[in-house]
Fold this sequence. Notes:
This protein is an alpha/beta fold. It has two domains: 7-123 and 261-324, Periplasmic binding protein-like II (D-Maltodextrin-Binding Protein, domain 2), CATH 3.40.190; 127-259, D-Maltodextrin-Binding Protein, domain 2. It has helices at residues 7-22, 44-55, 76-85, 95-103, 157-168, 183-191, 207-215, 226-234, 271-281, 284-293, 302-305, 315-324, and strands at 31-36, 66-71, 90-94, 117-133, 148-150, 177-179, 197-202, 218-220, 239-243, 254-266. β1 (31-36), α2 and β2 (66-71) form a beta-alpha-beta unit. Mean pLDDT is 89; it is low at 1-28.
Amino acid sequence: MAFSITRRAFSAGVGAAAVLAGTGMSFAQQAFFRIGTGGTSGTYYPIGGLIANAISATGEAGVEGLVATAVASNGSVANISAIQSGAGEAGFTQSDVAYWAYSGTGLYEGKPKVEDLRLVATLYPETIHLVARADAGIKSVADLKGKRVSLDEPGSGTIVDARLVLAAYGLSEKDLHAEYLKPGPSGEKVQDNSLDAYFFVGGYPTGAIVELAATNNITLVPIHGPEADKLLAEQGFFQTDTVPADTYKNVGETQTISVAAQMVSSAKQPDDLIYNIVKSLYSEASQKALQAGHAKGKMITLDNAVKSAGIPFHPGAERFYKEAGVLK
């Protein structure tokens, strides 16, 4: 997977380099730390930018000599691939995808296990949104039968989660007029009435759905009840979740499920580097910046950092969490 550094990321890197140069630190002493995020319309990208700014040397509590950049990508699987290939030092992923990669199951069935994958921090819940046109007559997952539904692109974490949800309600994609589109194009097709619903996994509020709801009558389809309870029991990486009323215009409180957004890296990354990055991330200054910068930033807390750990912690992160008293 080829990664391209965004204009914002490049500017942040150049700015950090200029500041470091002004302090007399040699260029060779700098550590460049690329964080794979997601598409620019999702939640990963803005959160990645906030974290990169917080932990960079230019941040109030940043790591000396570190130039961190947020890199736009295709999401979880692409970010893990970049870490494997050395095209990125860290990345964001869904907790289920991280588990599948490490264990060689799910999306990674029949593929080599990513045994070097390590958890840096659990960030926040990623809600499974089932977005539907308000006039499509979809009140439950079971109502998707015969409807035009996008499950996201092949190879995405969302498509696997969507299939699990459908199966819990006795459906498969054969029961739908299934399409395989990214959230952006899916929203456009909902807008022009050529799609009835689509799955999206991400922290709320997500910008693309906010924009869609501002100009179109949409609803969020609940994922709850006995079917969801059975799914939660079978798949330990799912948790119950609730989207508050008016998170999206004219959309009421909706019960659903979620996975966790996680920041992962490779066991090959130096222990001291990851230790200092995590220490910087949970400093008072960084926490204030995260809380002010995005709704999901308020959930990136030290207590949440060690939850939903389906893969081993990076030793540097583990050392910090033990010192901080949140991990035994």
